[in-house]
Amino acid sequence: MRLEPGRWLILADDLTGAADCAIAFARRGLEAMVAWHDAAGGAGARPGALAIDADSRRLPPTAAAARHATLLRPHLSGGARPALIKKIDSTLRGQPAAELAGSLALLRDAGQPRLALVAPAFPATGRTTENGCVRLWGVPLEATPLWARDHSYNSADLLAVLGSAGLKAWTLPLGQMRGGAAALAEALRAAQAGGLDAVVCDATEAADLEALARASLPLADSVLWVGSGGIAAALAAALPETPAASPALPRRHGGALVVVGSVAEASRAAAEALAATGAPRFTLPAALLRAGEAHPRWAVLRQEIAAALGAGRDTLVEIAADPAAELNRGAALAEALAMLLAPAVGGMGGLFATGGETACALLRRLGVHGIRLLDEVEPGVPLGLTLGALHLPVMTKAGAFGDGTTILRSLERLRQRTGTAS
């Protein structure tokens, strides 16, 4: 078996993560797309970078691992194989250890063993790894509101996290990460020779991930990169740039629909900033979404949202933050929100969605089976064009990424790209 030059497969546990990683390759001139896990086989010709949203973050460990193995298996046959990235949440939500363990076992069984290079750091968004532990803006992840709200493990110590799934690993501290490409490559080969399943790579700066990318790319047929948009950007930047024309975005005359389904503080702050501009704002209680069409306000809200978009006004729709709500009901609320908003598509000039479950549920409801990625409006906010019956400009953002003006800046970039800037 040989590595297929220029082809990358990214397996992600949610939509925003899939897009975060694939956009890095689009910026280097490779055709990049995101496909849903149950439609990936119908994506047609293989793009340079294919990111598959496994939609596994809320699954239990065994089911999450099985889904990732199912998605990986078809790509292991034939005379060539892609370079592999396992995209995990940079704050360790979901089941990254079980998913990785399942994928490594499948690779071994297929006669293609790989060493996992675990590098979840994304310094541009405040995520770093020090002494094998995840930190957020310099604070131990366990001491942050993100961890308090949603975590899968007892700690953010990556050796312990990997060990919980039976994986043998050691840490490459910053001193080794910064010791030069030759020494770093030798450390990776030593890990392979030592029979390890994974190495945890410390990184506090983008340069650390860039050094890892340069040292590990020659080993691409025997390693599996595990991380977030940070390592994807470093790997893509180390590749030769391929000139490619970016297709023009369609000019649509309605307002942009901004959907905030995340309870993360960064997303709520950005929503407040948009509302402060006078944009129509619709805050939907979870009880209304659970009631669905039986709720007396349902039909009225549909009409009001459609009217605002049709009048060309950027319109904010958000699920009311409810700290007492069960997180495992997020998928059901996102699906109900998609049902409410679907009739407004005719007056929509674009879509900005934050929160992977929310974005995926809405796009599915609109008949979209994937996204062709075109640009990155800022770190962690890719811009693409939907695939399927609807050709709609769409931007996605992980809930905890960005700051209070992320949505405003992203909408301005959308208007510039579509020629509708005032």
Automatic annotation (TrEMBL):
Any GO molecular function: kinase activity
InterPro entries tied to this protein: 4-carb_acid_sugar_kinase_N, 4-carb_acid_sugar_kinase_N_sf, NBD_C, NBD_C_sf
Domain Four-carbon acid sugar kinase N-terminal: 9-235
Signal peptide coordinates: none
Pfam short name (any one): NBD_C
Keyword Cell division carried by entry: no
Domain Four-carbon acid sugar kinase nucleotide binding stretches: 257-406
Matching SUPFAM superfamilies: YgbK-like (SSF142764)
Keyword line: ATP-binding, Carbohydrate metabolism, Kinase, Nucleotide-binding, Transferase
UniProt key word Ribonucleoprotein: no
The organism's place on the tree of life at top rank: Bacteria
Protein family membership: Belongs to the four-carbon acid sugar kinase family.
Protein name: Four-carbon acid sugar kinase family protein
Organism from which the protein derives: Teichococcus vastitatis
